[in-house]
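The freezer alarm interrupted the setup, so I double-checked each line after restarting. Inputs confirmed:
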Amino acid sequence: MSKSYNVAILGATGAVGTELLELLANRNFPLANLKLLASERSVGRTLSFKGENLPIEAVSDRAFDGIDIVLASAGGSTSKTWAGKAVEKGAVVIDNSSAFRMKEEVPLVVPEVNPQAAAHHQGIIANPNCTTILLSVALWPLHQVRPIKRLVVATYQSASGAGAKAMAEVQTQSSAILSGQPAVAEVLPYPLAFNLFPHNSPLNEQGYCEEEMKMVNETRKIFGTQQIRITATCVRVPVLRAHSEAVNIEFEVPFSPEEAREIISRSPGVKLIEDWQANHFPMPIEATGRDEVLVGRIRQDISHPCGLELWLCGDQIRKGAALNAVQIAELLVEKNLLKPLAISH
Amino acid sequence: MSKSYNVAILGATGAVGTELLELLANRNFPLANLKLLASERSVGRTLSFKGENLPIEAVSDRAFDGIDIVLASAGGSTSKTWAGKAVEKGAVVIDNSSAFRMKEEVPLVVPEVNPQAAAHHQGIIANPNCTTILLSVALWPLHQVRPIKRLVVATYQSASGAGAKAMAEVQTQSSAILSGQPAVAEVLPYPLAFNLFPHNSPLNEQGYCEEEMKMVNETRKIFGTQQIRITATCVRVPVLRAHSEAVNIEFEVPFSPEEAREIISRSPGVKLIEDWQANHFPMPIEATGRDEVLVGRIRQDISHPCGLELWLCGDQIRKGAALNAVQIAELLVEKNLLKPLAISH
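Predicted 3D structure, all chains:
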């Protein structure tokens, strides 16, 4: 009989938490028990899992007793408070927040790219930022064939990146505008319906926002090189749950679009969507609910002999967050990477 | 008494035509008479201009009798049919279609950039494509100080670029989706509400769409140099009438963001919108109805020593089309450029 594991979801009620539940059920993760943890105000609610109603429990030290894997998606400060305690209890924490991503001792893992990094974990493994995951899955197969020198990225990020409330807000705003009422912005800083704006994360002194610097720093860490030069402009758009990215890639040497296309076609986690005749390429509504990052419009950059242009869309909640976390959990199970730290229980 | 002119609008009923009427009224263009021309099916309708109801007349050879300036915005095939005939009658045609833009003998004019080009017209002056106009106005002042070497642009283009019907369609689709109905795409090839897709203009053999090649070719023609290397990814987004562009600029030599900011601040047709404290930068809803191209997020490109990143928004119908055409008409009047071809009438 194969082993099964006790899993806790920290932040079970959010957009990513909901997706984690669905993925654990649909992918038949070898679960012994599933525990749902959230803040005090969600206690008393239940969430459906495989036909059962699971109660939401308040997070506490004792909540992690006997847990093998924590899937944390409750924001950075919650992760900072609880991840260490969960690890002390013998759990491995797969953390979706940005709290630990750039810590040297914490592996930052995209299973299609750097599964080997997971082996060195000391209890915490970080799940990268959504835009970084999507970009990494699409570019890694190309980078392995000929190294990437520089990236210029522009993103088209859905409301889901700011959570379920932002997704609801853009719909409420759209309804308001369509009936001649003003759009009220409460979750996001500006109206997003029929509008867009540069990503509203804090700006550094150079004028880059946090979201952009995540793409720069996390991509380098995942790819295991500080040599790739990266610049990004991150923009929030009125789309519900899939991100898109226009990616200009400069390689060290020329890379033909035909070869890039062939490589993408046979790489894991990506799907080439290119119907040149019908002018049909990846779109957020088609990426929604899918596991793969959709890639298309691969073409020789007419402005640079070593350049390729590429367009991608991916489900922000799924591969951009929940799916990647579950894949890391599956990797831990498959490679027996829970053991070294497992305290008997 | 200052001279006044007979103006005809060809394509008066479209989104750009409507804006042309408003601009001619509000800017107090020295009009003698205004004639509204459209296809047969609009004949019988009237449009309001300065409190008067002007009839729409069918376009014909004789319709151009006595006309000094034709503002044409009825699509490429209509322009190809009628522009020559209007010129034969002594009019100067300012054409908003792409029909004549790349013809060597036709000036392609953005008044803030290359007003001198208008002097060499032979009866037709072309109004550039919307994304090109917005980009040109923002970048020209920088290019004059230190030459631009390469541009990597990603656009966020509103529905208005596909006309008034596309603007209505994205709203109808939004209503449908919000009430749980499917989004029907009739004007645009795919649903645009809560979605986006690469620009649906025809693709060339290299995989660039027409919209992208317009940016490449028209920008070079307006700037008077074939040396600038340009690549672009054009994307349609669910915004009503202002386009945005994420622009990565590589100069021949370094260009400090402070200097760029100072130059933009004092240049015509652009407005710097940068509140770093409040994370407030140009947005389509704020660019809507404004004459200026809003520019912000000017920052040193951390991936290139000679790079700057810049973000812009501009009203697609106004500066991206109608306003630029009216400014060209004003330039013709001001510089007395109607005369050489004017046949007495």
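Quick read of the result. The first strand of chain A starts at residue 5 and ends at 10.
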